[in-house]
């Protein structure tokens, strides 16, 4: 790309000092549509989850046996032998077999209800937080067949309450060269944008119409997170580190008083909760949403293709 036409970018600003000032935290969130927190988790907490994910890849022979496990280098001949439809299944960057094993991990789902995350969103919402159980892991294998996640807004896929926020948490160090998440700062103010089809995760790309917002991004270290509103446009950067696997979690939260769409209470993937719960020890993580008195909103397929929103 010609440097003169390259989209403007700005560096993430650490919102950690605002955690002690909830009103200021909410003002910043309303203004930017996202918040970045440096070192939000202890590094070892993240690396423990990383080890669980990489162990699954290793057992499935998807990691290079000549490299240290925690470095996360793929077994390229095995990965290259996967069909494009296998590696692009459900937008998670790996096969359904691998993802089924990930979704069975109690520690993966427990991480989504980490006390620090719940306290953060309680402060952001000014009320009790409900964590969606539909937790997503991105196990992005290094493959030329893998489609990069395009610019998009989560609300088109989640629906329910527009006040739903996503936490994107890298499971390990994710510099921009490995394909970190980039945020279009302030784009939540534009409302729902028109879309076009895209082969990346979610299948839809937001049409940005020269909105004039700047992309914000940075080099993530294990423990960093970014949280953003369901209308905030975001995208993955391409992985430019040959052979490296990129691991991250998409975790979603909303005010407990707000309505929800029923699919947000289902597992991510064609799985059943009772089967995923096999061997779990924490009863509080199971079917906890049954204690809520939600208003349910139907999924509206029509808003995903509003022609009058296309420029």
Automatic annotation (TrEMBL):
<protein>
    <submittedName>
        <fullName>Phytanoyl-CoA dioxygenase family protein</fullName>
    </submittedName>
</protein>
<keyword id="KW-0560">Oxidoreductase</keyword>
<dbReference type="GO" id="GO:0051213">
    <property type="term" value="F:dioxygenase activity"/>
</dbReference>
<dbReference type="InterPro" id="IPR008775">
    <property type="entry name" value="Phytyl_CoA_dOase-like"/>
</dbReference>
<keyword id="KW-0223">Dioxygenase</keyword>
<dbReference type="Pfam" id="PF05721">
    <property type="entry name" value="PhyH"/>
</dbReference>
């Amino acid at each position: 790309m010609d440097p003169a036409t390259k989209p403007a970018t700005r560096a993430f600003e650490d919102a950690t000092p605002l955690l002690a000032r909830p009103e200021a935290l909410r003002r910043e969130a309303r203004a930017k549509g996202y918040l970045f927190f440096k070192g939000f988790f202890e590094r070892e907490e993240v690396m423990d989850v990383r080890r669980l994910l990489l162990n699954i890849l290793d057992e499935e022979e998807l990691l290079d046996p000549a490299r240290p496990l925690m470095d996360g280098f793929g077994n390229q001949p095995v990965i290259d032998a996967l069909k494009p439809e296998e590696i692009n299944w459900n937008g998670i960057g790996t096969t359904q077999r691998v993802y089924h094993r990930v979704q069975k991990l109690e520690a993966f789902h427990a991480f989504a209800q980490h006390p620090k995350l719940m306290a953060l969103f309680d402060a952001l919402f000014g009320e009790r937080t409900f964590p969606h159980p539909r937790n997503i892991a991105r196990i992005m294998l290094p493959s030329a067949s893998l489609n990069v996640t395009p610019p998009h807004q989560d609300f088109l896929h989640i629906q329910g309450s527009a006040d739903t926020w996503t936490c994107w948490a890298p499971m390990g160090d994710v510099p921009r060269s490995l394909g970190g998440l980039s945020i279009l700062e302030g784009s939540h103010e534009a409302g729902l944008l028109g879309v076009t089809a895209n082969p990346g995760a979610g299948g839809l790309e937001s049409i940005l119409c020269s909105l004039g917002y700047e992309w914000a991004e940075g080099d993530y270290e294990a423990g960093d997170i970014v949280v953003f509103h369901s209308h905030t446009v975001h995208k993955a950067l391409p992985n430019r580190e040959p052979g490296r696997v990129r691991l991250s979690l998409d975790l979603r939260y909303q005010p407990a008083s707000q309505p929800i769409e029923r699919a947000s209470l289902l597992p991510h993937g064609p799985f059943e909760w009772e089967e995923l719960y096999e061997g779990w020890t924490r009863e509080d993580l199971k079917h906890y949403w049954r204690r809520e008195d939600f208003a349910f909103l139907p999924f509206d397929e029509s808003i995903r293709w509003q022609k009058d929103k296309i420029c």
